Amino acid sequence: MSHTYEYPRPALTVDCVVFGMDEGDLKVLLIQRGVEPFVGKWALPGGFVRMEESLEDAARRELAEEAGIRPSHLEQLYTFGEPSRDPRGRVVTVAYFALVKLSDHNVVHAATDAREAAWFSVWDTPKLAFDHSDVLATALQRLKGKVRYQPIGFELLPPKFTLTQLQRLYEVILERELDKRNFRKKILSMDLLEELDEVEQDVSHRAARLYRFDHKKYKQLEKAGFNFEL
Amino acid sequence: MSHTYEYPRPALTVDCVVFGMDEGDLKVLLIQRGVEPFVGKWALPGGFVRMEESLEDAARRELAEEAGIRPSHLEQLYTFGEPSRDPRGRVVTVAYFALVKLSDHNVVHAATDAREAAWFSVWDTPKLAFDHSDVLATALQRLKGKVRYQPIGFELLPPKFTLTQLQRLYEVILERELDKRNFRKKILSMDLLEELDEVEQDVSHRAARLYRFDHKKYKQLEKAGFNFEL
């Protein structure tokens, strides 16, 4: 075993950027640290990787422990390893990111090392512990990139949604307004959406048509990728 | 310091996938291991991360030590952490990938833990140690993806090249033939190339026009990304 033990080892953690979509706003899940360092400060949920678990399992365990959240899909984002990023010493963290329906996770329960868990607008978070602001910024970049070459929204929107909700999701992620007619023309041309015989309920304005994703086509495009110029 | 020391730590390594373009073939740099485990087997260059160095610095140090290679650009690829991936125990590896001009690195010099260093066609490598075949496959996927939304070739082609050489690069990466007229139309429409007043030298066939990348435009497109349907 000598080769793996010759060297002092950095500590290894995972951290998770969980995005949720709320009426027209993109939210990120944060926890308030209950332990040093940065006790009382807000941070991304995460913690140390155990010897017997995979990196993704560690990320899922920490999300469940610290915020009671179990996302269907987790994706590895980037590994942050600047020697000075943690005051405790050398700690390398593998960051994951996930998209969830906020409606399924409106109430998040803090536990273990987390004092509180809550959703914050990605554009208005408190100062984050460690280099977690960089991790969040990297996740937002990834999300902006995905929009251009993969379908998005399945994990973020309710099962049935209006085209306005879908456009709003794109606008929030891309941080700019999109032309309504142009957006609809492009999104509908992809055969990604199923038009339903239903309209929104309980709205003051004229009820809009509801759509849902064609799951098979969605998965196809996720795999094959596409070019979506907006 | 307790929080970082409560847990046994996985060992942390870096591994590098270095691609080089050789007359019409995509090559990957491999080293023959001089130490256990997998002594004598071929693997990606890499090694343990030191406590005081960043992950990228570790990757650069290992590349220089094991193969005498100093790529201008290194990019983090993915972190592999399956508990069973290394027979020595729990070892998590952060993989990097780099593109280099084979002409600058034709002769690679093995050193330290590497017995030999050599270039292999990516389509015809020996059986690799650890999970390095998965790492290589992941790097090839990343390269295929990049071709679609970023300019490519600056690090792989000689400073002056023909459109045929550039098309061949795309064909090798995409693993399919491209229509010559269509490819030229698209690539020239991007204003990415500077046509030179020179033609190839010492060729039996009719000497073709030489081009070079417009570095400024190349960097712009690298940053902004584009949609290149081929």
UniProtKB/TrEMBL annotation, chains A, B:
<dbReference type="Pfam" id="PF21906">
    <property type="entry name" value="WHD_NrtR"/>
</dbReference>
<protein>
    <submittedName>
        <fullName>NUDIX domain-containing protein</fullName>
    </submittedName>
</protein>
<dbReference type="InterPro" id="IPR036390">
    <property type="entry name" value="WH_DNA-bd_sf"/>
</dbReference>
<dbReference type="InterPro" id="IPR054105">
    <property type="entry name" value="WHD_NrtR"/>
</dbReference>
<dbReference type="InterPro" id="IPR020476">
    <property type="entry name" value="Nudix_hydrolase"/>
</dbReference>
<dbReference type="InterPro" id="IPR015797">
    <property type="entry name" value="NUDIX_hydrolase-like_dom_sf"/>
</dbReference>
<dbReference type="Pfam" id="PF00293">
    <property type="entry name" value="NUDIX"/>
</dbReference>
<dbReference type="InterPro" id="IPR020084">
    <property type="entry name" value="NUDIX_hydrolase_CS"/>
</dbReference>
<dbReference type="InterPro" id="IPR036388">
    <property type="entry name" value="WH-like_DNA-bd_sf"/>
</dbReference>
<comment type="similarity">
    <text>Belongs to the Nudix hydrolase family.</text>
</comment>
<keyword id="KW-0378">Hydrolase</keyword>
<feature type="domain" description="Nudix hydrolase">
    <location>
        <begin position="11"/>
        <end position="143"/>
    </location>
</feature>
<dbReference type="InterPro" id="IPR000086">
    <property type="entry name" value="NUDIX_hydrolase_dom"/>
</dbReference>
